[in-house]
C-alpha cells in the first residue's frame, strides 16, 4: 500500500514538473513571439499617416474658393488648432486612460469581456483611441479575428513611433461625424459653420458624442439623443477633472444653433477656373486623379476675386438673358502670365464646357497684330502704305481666286498707312501684307506668340480663319504688353501636400521672344483702335466704346460670320473676350455683335478701378516718337489739320514732310493738340481720357 502511494506521488510530481516545464516553454514562446512582434514592428518603422483629405483651392489673396468634390469633406487641423474642450471631451468619452496606456487598455478589455459574457452578446467595446485610429488609417471595419489582430499590430506600430499628441491629432482628423464629414474641422464647419478652434464647451461636448453613431446622435437627426449623449460626455469630463460641475451644467443648458451645410456649398467660386486648375494639376504637374481629389493638397491659384466677380457681372449685364449666345473670357497679368479671371460660359450647371480654354474659334481680325508684328520685322513701319480697294487676288499655282471684303464693303480707294489699316481693320491691306510676307510667315509668327492650334496656309489666314483658343490669344497679346517677354498661361503659384511640404512653386524666368522696340511700336499702333484721329473711310473699330474708357488701352477687335472678339490691354492687365454660339450659328442680331466689346471695356474699367493709371512706357532705346499726318504717314507740319504722335523703330521713321496742306492753314485746335508737349502722350493720342 505504501509502495503504491509513493508511486502515485512520484507520478503526480512528474506530471506537475511536466506542466511547469511546458508552461515555462509556453511563456518563453509567448515572450519570444511578443518580442518578435515588437522587433518586427520596429524594423518596419513608422506607418505612413497619409489619409484621404479634401484638396483645397485658394485665390491669390488666400481666400478659399473651392475644394475637390467627391462627396466627402476631409480637412486636416493641427492639434493646437482644435478646441481644447473638444480634445478633452473626446478623450473623456472614448479613452479616459489614453495618456497612460501603450495602445491597449487591459482593464477595459477585461471589463468588456466580462460584460459580454454576462450578456451572452457583444455589448461593450474596449478599443482605445490608438486602435480606432489604426482602424481608420489602414483597415476595413469588418468584425473578423484577422482584422482585430492586424489592428492590434498597427496600434503597436503607432505607439512605438508616434507621440500621443500625433496619435490624438490623427484620430481627431479621421473619425466620421456623419453627413460626409471626416475629422473635427469638417464636422465643425458642417454643424456650426465655424473652425474647430472656435468651438465652445457646449458645442464641443455635443460634437464629441456624434461619432458613436452619427445616424443616432447627430443633432440634425435627433436633438434629444444628441443632448442626452452630451450630458454623459459632460459628466465624464467632470469625473476626469477636465471641467468643474457648474461649467458642465451651464454647457448642458445652452441652446445651440446648427448650420447643416458646408461653407463652400453656399457659392462655388469660378467653377470654370477651378476645372482648368484641376486639369493643370493633372497635365502639367502630372498628379493622378486620386491625389488631386483626396491628397489633401493646398493649391494656391492666381485667381483675383475682385476681377473674377467683375468678369461674371459684366457678362450677366451685357449678354441678353434670352439669348443662347455663349461667352469666353480670360484676364491675365502680362508680366507673368497669371490668369486673374476666367469665364468659360454663362451657366456652369447647364454646360461645364470651358469656352475660354477648350473651344477653338476663328479669331477674325484679332490675328492682325501678330501679322503686322511680322511685317515690322520685315521692314514695314506704321507709315507703310498700300491701296485699299476692292481686290480679287489671282494665283498662278492653281489656287482659286480670292476676293476678301471690308466691313460693309467700304474701301479707301486710295493709299492708307499700316497704322490706319490696323485702326479701321482694313482687310485688303492685311491680305496684301500676308501674301507679300509669304503665307508661312504668319504661321511661324503665331507659334512664336504661343498659339498651338494648327494654322492653314491660305490667303484668308490674315483675316483669322484658322481657329484659336481664347486663353492663348490673351497670352499672345501679353507679349505686346510686357515688351516681348515670353509668358505662358499660369493658373497655379504653389501646391503643398497634406503635410505642408511644397511640391510645386512657379518660377518666373525671363526670356525675350519679341524685339522690345517692335513690340512697343506695335502696342502704340494698337492704341489707334481707340483714337478718332485715325478714322478715315471708316471709323476706328473701338469708337463705340471710347466713352466707356478712362485710361490708355491698346487692343484689337475681330469678327467673323459666327464669332465676335475683343482683345486689349493696359500695362497691368490683358483681357480677351469671345462671344458666339456653340453650334456656329451666324451672328445676325446687331446687339450680339457688341457683346464682346462691351464686356471687355466695362470689365477692364472695373478690374482696374483703384489701380494707378499707367501709360505704355517706351523702351530706353530703339524707338523714336514723331508727329505725323495719320492720313499719309509723313512728318506733320503746322499746316496739317490732324497730327498724331507716333512711334517708330529707330532708323525707320519717316523723313519726308507732308506737303498736302501747304498754304491751306491748319486748324488751330489741332495745332494745339499736336504741340502741347506737357500733356502726357497717351492723352495727346487719346484726347477723351
UniProtKB/TrEMBL annotation:
Domain Glycosyl transferase family intervals: 62-237
Domain Penicillin-binding protein transpeptidase: 329-582
Biological-process GO terms, alphabetical: cell wall organization; peptidoglycan biosynthetic process; proteolysis; regulation of cell shape
Entry-linked InterPro entries: Beta-lactam/transpept-like, Glyco_trans_51, Glycosyltr_51/Transpeptidase, Lysozyme-like_dom_sf, PBP_transglycosylase, PCN-bd_Tpept
Keywords: Carboxypeptidase, Cell membrane, Cell shape, Cell wall biogenesis/degradation, Glycosyltransferase, Hydrolase, Membrane, Multifunctional enzyme, Peptidoglycan synthesis, Protease, Transferase, Transmembrane, Transmembrane helix
Record-given protein name: PBP1A family penicillin-binding protein
Protein family (similarity comment): In the N-terminal section; belongs to the glycosyltransferase 51 family. In the C-terminal section; belongs to the transpeptidase family.
Amino acid at each position: 500500500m505504501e509502495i503504491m502511494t509513493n508511486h502515485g506521488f512520484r507520478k503526480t510530481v512528474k506530471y506537475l514538473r511536466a506542466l511547469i516545464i511546458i508552461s515555462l516553454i509556453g511563456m518563453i514562446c509567448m515572450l519570444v513571439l511578443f518580442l518578435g512582434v515588437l522587433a518586427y514592428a520596429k524594423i518596419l518603422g513608422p506607418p505612413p499617416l497619409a489619409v484621404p483629405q479634401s484638396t483645397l483651392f485658394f485665390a491669390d489673396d488666400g481666400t478659399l474658393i473651392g475644394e475637390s468634390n467627391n462627396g466627402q469633406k476631409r480637412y486636416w487641423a493641427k492639434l493646437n488648432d482644435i478646441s481644447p474642450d473638444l480634445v478633452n471631451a473626446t478623450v473623456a468619452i472614448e479613452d479616459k486612460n489614453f495618456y497612460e496606456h501603450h495602445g491597449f487598455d487591459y482593464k477595459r478589455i477585461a471589463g468588456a469581456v466580462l460584460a459580454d459574457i454576462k450578456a451572452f452578446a457583444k455589448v461593450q467595446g474596449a478599443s482605445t483611441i490608438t486602435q480606432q485610429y489604426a482602424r481608420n488609417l489602414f483597415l476595413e471595419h469588418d468584425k473578423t479575428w484577422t482584422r482585430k489582430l492586424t489592428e492590434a499590430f498597427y496600434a503597436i506600430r503607432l505607439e512605438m513611433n508616434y507621440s500621443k499628441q500625433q496619435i490624438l491629432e490623427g484620430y481627431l482628423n479621421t473619425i466620421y461625424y456623419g453627413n460626409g464629414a471626416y475629422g473635427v474641422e469638417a464636422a465643425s464647419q458642417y454643424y456650426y459653420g465655424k473652425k474647430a478652434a472656435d468651438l465652445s464647451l457646449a458645442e464641443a461636448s455635443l460634437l464629441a458624442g456624434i461619432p458613436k453613431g452619427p445616424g443616432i446622435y447627430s443633432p440634425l437627426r435627433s436633438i434629444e439623443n444628441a443632448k442626452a449623449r452630451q450630458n454623459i460626455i459632460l459628466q465624464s469630463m467632470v469625473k476626469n477633472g477636465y471641467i468643474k460641475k457648474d461649467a458642465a451644467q451651464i454647457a448642458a443648458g445652452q441652446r445651440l444653433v446648427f448650420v447643416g451645410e458646408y461653407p463652400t456649398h453656399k457659392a462655388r467660386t469660378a467653377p470654370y477656373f477651378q476645372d482648368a486648375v484641376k486639369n493643370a494639376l493633372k497635365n502639367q504637374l502630372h498628379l493622378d486623379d486620386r491625389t488631386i481629389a483626396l491628397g489633401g493638397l493646398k493649391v494656391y491659384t492666381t485667381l483675383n476675386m475682385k476681377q473674377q466677380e467683375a468678369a461674371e457681372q459684366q457678362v450677366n449685364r451685357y449678354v441678353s438673358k434670352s439669348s443662347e449666345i455663349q461667352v469666353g473670357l480670360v484676364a491675365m497679368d502680362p508680366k507673368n502670365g497669371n490668369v486673374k479671371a476666367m469665364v468659360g460660359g454663362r451657366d456652369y450647371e447647364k454646360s461645364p464646357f470651358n469656352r475660354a480654354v477648350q473651344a477653338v474659334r476663328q479669331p477674325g481680325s484679332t490675328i492682325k497684330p501678330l501679322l503686322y508684328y511680322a511685317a515690322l520685322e520685315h521692314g514695314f513701319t506704321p507709315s507703310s502704305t498700300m491701296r485699299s480697294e476692292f481686290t480679287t487676288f489671282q494665283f498662278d499655282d492653281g489656287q482659286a481666286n480670292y476676293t476678301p471684303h471690308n466691313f460693309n464693303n467700304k474701301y479707301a480707294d486710295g493709299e492708307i498707312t499700316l497704322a490706319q489699316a490696323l485702326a479701321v481693320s482694313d482687310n485688303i491691306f492685311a491680305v496684301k501684307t500676308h501674301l507679300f510676307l509669304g503665307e508661312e510667315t504668319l504661321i511661324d509668327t503665331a507659334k512664336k506668340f504661343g498659339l498651338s492650334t494648327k494654322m492653314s496656309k491660305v490667303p484668308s489666314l490674315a483675316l483669322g480663319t484658322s481657329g484659336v483658343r481664347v486663353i492663348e490669344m490673351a497670352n499672345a497679346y501679353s507679349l505686346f504688353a510686357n515688351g516681348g517677354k515670353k509668358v505662358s498661361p499660369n493658373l497655379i503659384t504653389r501646391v503643398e501636400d497634406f503635410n505642408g511640404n511644397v511640391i510645386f512653386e512657379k518660377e518666373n524666368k525671363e526670356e525675350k521672344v519679341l524685339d522690345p522696340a517692335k513690340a512697343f511700336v506695335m502696342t502704340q499702333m494698337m492704341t489707334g483702335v481707340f483714337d478718332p484721329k485715325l478714322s478715315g473711310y471708316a471709323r476706328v473699330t473701338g469708337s463705340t466704346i471710347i466713352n466707356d474708357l478712362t485710361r490708355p488701352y491698346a487692343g484689337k477687335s475681330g469678327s467673323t460670320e459666327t464669332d465676335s472678339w475683343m482683345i486689349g490691354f493696359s500695362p497691368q492687365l490683358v483681357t480677351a473676350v469671345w462671344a458666339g454660339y456653340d453650334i456656329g450659328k451666324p451672328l445676325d442680331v446687331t446687339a450680339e455683335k457688341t457683346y464682346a466689346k462691351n464686356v471687355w471695356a466695362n470689365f477692364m474699367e472695373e478690374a482696374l478701378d483703384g489701380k494707378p493709371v499707367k501709360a505704355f512706357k517706351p523702351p530706353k532705346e530703339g524707338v523714336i516718337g514723331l508727329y505725323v499726318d495719320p492720313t499719309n504717314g509723313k512728318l506733320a507740319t503746322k499746316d496739317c489739320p490732324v497730327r498724331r504722335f507716333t512711334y517708330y523703330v529707330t532708323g525707320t521713321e519717316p523723313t519726308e514732310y507732308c506737303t498736302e496742306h501747304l498754304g491751306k492753314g491748319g486748324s488751330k485746335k489741332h495745332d494745339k493738340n499736336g504741340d502741347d508737349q506737357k500733356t502726357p502722350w497717351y492723352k495727346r493720342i487719346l484726347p477723351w481720357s
